[in-house]
Design brief:
By secondary structure, this protein is α+β, with helices and mostly antiparallel strands. The strands form four sheets. Strands 3-6-7-8-9-10 form a six-stranded mixed sheet, sandwiched between helices. A hairpin with a 4-residue loop joins strand 8 and strand 9. The protein is globular and about 40 Å long. It starts with 15 loop residues before the first helix and ends with a strand.
């Protein structure tokens, strides 16, 4: 099949069903949908961001393989949040208990839940405000812990349920707290 270009009008709004159909026929695109139905096409990342993303994801996979506490997802996974949005965090984790409550069909499509843990990594072209809005959206939809990592400014914003955002400047490590028990992320590679 020959690849073709897609042009999408600004602020195009689509339903959940339309989003699912569009995503299925455009598997090479990274798509998100806001709670109001606005379609967002996510551009590919650059080499440095891609390198950091895979290093981050691998650390979560290794920890999860050791603990068997849940499932780890990469940035190609879209979750159907309770507010109606479809979002794809750079790294996500869902507890085994919550994942096993989903039917096989729900697991195979866009899982209808917000991950317990979310990590967003700011790429060179990302603006912080939309990332912060996305993190707040995750928090409002039952995310328990989230990290927004800004490698450019060496800042990490930590989002927790029903708590103010904590901002850390140049942290050496991050703790998974009680959400990701015994998980510690060494940030030196960033």
């Amino acid at each position: 099949m020959k690849p073709s270009a897609i042009n999408i009008p600004n602020h195009l709004k689509i339903s959940q069903e339309q989003f699912e159909k569009l995503a299925l026929v455009n598997r090479d695109l990274r798509l998100e949908r806001t709670k109001t139905g606005e379609l967002i096409v996510m551009p590919p990342t650059g080499g440095s961001t891609g390198k950091y993303n895979v290093k981050l994801a691998s650390r979560f996979v290794i920890w999860n393989e050791q603990t068997q506490l849940g499932e780890v997802f990469d940035s190609s996974t879209a979750f159907s949040l309770p507010n109606g949005a479809n979002r794809s965090p750079d790294v996500a984790w869902v507890s085994r208990e919550r994942w096993n409550c989903l039917t096989r069909e729900q697991q195979d499509t866009f899982p209808p839940l917000c991950p317990d843990f979310v990590l967003e990594l700011r790429s060179k072209t990302d603006k912080m405000q939309p990332l912060r809005e996305k993190m707040r959206e995750y928090s409002e939809n039952q995310m328990r812990l989230g990290w927004l990592i800004d490698t450019k400014n060496k800042i990490v914003e930590i989002y927790r349920s029903n708590q103010p955002v904590e901002v850390l400047k140049k942290p050496a490590t991050l703790s998974g707290e009680d959400i990701l028990p015994e998980f510690v992320l060494d940030l030196q590679f960033l």
